[in-house]
Amino acid sequence: MADSKHIVLRHLDIGKPIIKLKDYEKRAGGYDGFKKAVKMEKSAVIDEVKASGLRGRGGAGFPAGVKWSFIPQNEPIKYVTVNADESETGTFKDRLIMEQNPHQLIEGALTCAYAIGAKAVYIYLRGEFWDVAHMLDERIEEARKAGYIGENILGSGFSCEVYTHLGAGAYICGEESALLNSLEGKLGQPRVRPPFPAQKGGGLYGEATVVNNVETLANVPWIMVNGADEYKKIGTEQSAGTKLYCVSGNIQKPGVYELPFDTTFRELLETVCGGPPEGRSFKALLPSGGSGPIVPLTDEVLDTRMSYEDCAAIDTIIGSASLIVMDDSVNIAWVASKVIKFFAHESCGKCTPCREGTYWLDKVLDRIMAGQATAKDIERIDDVAKNMAGITLCALGDFAANPIIHTIKHFKEDFLAMAEGKELAQAGD
Amino acid sequence: MAVIGNKKYSKQIEHHFSKYPDKRSAVMPLLYIAQEEYGWVNDDGIQEVAELCELDPTHVKSIAGFYTMYSEKSKGKYWLQVCTDLSCALRGADEFHKDLKAYLEVEEGGTTDDDLFTVEHVMCLAACDNAPMLQCNFHYMENLDMEKMKAWVEEKRAELQKELDA
Ligand SMILES: Cc1cc2nc3c(=O)[nH]c(=O)nc-3n(C[C@H](O)[C@H](O)[C@H](O)COP(=O)(O)O)c2cc1C
Ligand code: SF4
Ligand code: FES
């Protein structure tokens, strides 16, 4: 298994989806990682995941094993919540894992549940993943029948349930504390922290809770089987393992590609994805969906490795690795207006700078796009965005400031051309 | 009919209550059931969900209003939500959305006269590599173009005609 190309999208090595438990057991190692885990001390499982260097794939890159170790062992009730809200523009990887290799997620989540001693796992899916949730329910039933879920699992004394829960169309529910509120039947708005979800009082129903992304947990079975040392050999020093890169926009072959973290943007975008559309050249890249800083797609960027540390060095983030590619036909002010519309729509309205800020940014950008603005308006939105950053209750406020600040920083001429009505015909409009 | 006392839903409702330590958590799945029963989340649905989850109806109403997938007005049989977010727009989704509305002769959010189709645009649906795409009720339709859409629309119209004739 260690020499196979994929850790998460294992079905690609086999050539077809691994849906049924029978297939997962026969062709992809089954629940071997989990079986191994339940024979180990709980703390040893956490130590192994810590040692692997596995980092959260939902965006922030927090070390998974460290997060698990925050859970107080002496609390009687603990939970695992799987973040399958996947709503960031340009992100479509978790859906693929759940559709094509679902048992690997369930196995990873159960391993986490064992390690922290959780009594239940809730998989929170965005409401649009209706079909995926129903399919997952069937896989959960299979795993229950096989004795991986329920009472006294595999004779270990550990008992745990796994459930799915559907959201109903709110991007903010991907933010972990909003997700917990939503799961509790409250409005899906972020909570004030501390306490953090891993602490008593901060998690689901006030109990200590691990919230992890789908892709994060889907890495765990491989780590349990092959060991932390093998895992660390893949990727870079600070970014161990592989990443699922979602590529969309102006590119020949959009899709999800699982590659080691030491792969460069060039290798992915040119070699794997075949470059920009015929007759076009690359202009810009959003490496982490709408929320991360945009970069011009220069040779320097193309030769950068798609890791946490290498992306930080070029003033952006790899985040959830949702690469949205823009070619030379695109005006970047239009990109900013699209992205700000998203955040204005998705702001939960709880804090003023985010609610009002996104509203005004959207309005002024509309004016810019209509050719009815001046250079002063561009300075104004830059100011508004800079004032929003860092003072909101959750990171959405920062996410919404990024597309303005960084698009203006790198592509101010596009804004000027728009504002003064020099360029009105737009891609897609 | 109604949600409470309806045999069609009793098993589902029981299952949802069994999932959570707290009745309140079942409010979202139960709102989906109310929407299925009434076609949208109306006051009767709100009332029933509130009763079942032992919540205040105004709270249930605010939940229904917070999330976009609970419809607060009646929709066509096929609720077409076209993604026009950035990745899809880079692959022609804005144009597709405009052409679809023109073909069906509806405004944004409007429903066709035969009550079959409602069209509106939405944010990213996590299918960006298969743009243009849309969500029809709870299912995805991907890699679309107007040719495909026209054929599909006419098929649904023919089905309706057949029903009316029968
Ligand atoms: C506005 C907002 C939206 C988010 N959306 C998602 C999401 O859709 N999926 C996800 O896994 N994490 C999302 N996150 C990150 C989560 O808050 C959290 O960091 C993550 O689920 C932790 O899991 P990980 O450590 O495995 O990445 C979002 C964060 C913010 C601030
Ligand atoms: S920053 Fe925006 S999304 Fe986050 S809590 Fe405040 S208003 Fe809500
Ligand atoms: S941008 Fe349309 S599905 Fe993601």
Keywords for this structure?
heterodimer, A: 429 residues, alpha/beta, Rossmann fold, Ubiquitin-like (UB roll), de novo design (two linked rop proteins), five-stranded mixed sheet, four-stranded parallel sheet, 19 helices, 44% helix, disordered C terminus, B: 166 residues, alpha+beta, Arc Repressor Mutant, subunit A, Glutaredoxin, 2 domains, four-stranded mixed sheet, 7 helices, 4 strands, globular, binds flavin mononucleotide, binds iron/sulfur cluster, binds FE2/S2 (inorganic) cluster
Walkthrough of the structure:
- The complex is a heterodimer of chains A (429) and B (166).
- In chain A, 44% of the residues lie in helices and 13% in strands.
- Chain A is of the alpha/beta class and 429 residues long.
- Chain A folds into three domains: 11-232, Rossmann fold, CATH 3.40.50.11540; 242-327, Ubiquitin-like (UB roll), CATH 3.10.20; 332-428, de novo design (two linked rop proteins).
- A five-stranded mixed sheet of chain A has the order 6-5-9-7-8, with helices on one face.
- In chain A, strand 5 and strand 6 form a beta hairpin.
- Residues 425-429 of chain A have low confidence and may be disordered.
- Chain B is an alpha+beta fold.
- Chain B has two domains: 7-66, NADH-quinone oxidoreductase subunit E (Arc Repressor Mutant, subunit A); 78-165, Glutaredoxin (3-Layer(aba) Sandwich).
- Helix content of chain B is 49%, strand content 11%.
- Chain B is built from seven helices and four strands, in the order H-H-H-H-E-H-H-E-E-E-H.
- Chain B has helices spanning 7-19, 27-38, 43-53, 57-66, 86-89, 93-104, 146-165, and strands at residues 78-83, 117-122, 134-136, 139-141.
- A four-stranded mixed sheet of chain B has the order 2-1-3-4, with helices on one face.
- In chain B, a hairpin with a 2-residue loop joins strand 3 (134-136) and strand 4 (139-141).
- In chain B, helix 2 packs antiparallel against helix 3 (43-53) and helix 3 packs across helix 4.
- Chain B is globular, with a radius of gyration of 18 Å.
- The two termini of chain B are 24 Å apart.
- In chain B, 40% of the residues are buried.
- Iron/sulfur cluster (SF4) binds next to helix 17 and helix 19 of chain A.
- Iron/sulfur cluster is lined by residues 172, 189-190, 347-351, 354-355, 392-394, 396-397 of chain A.
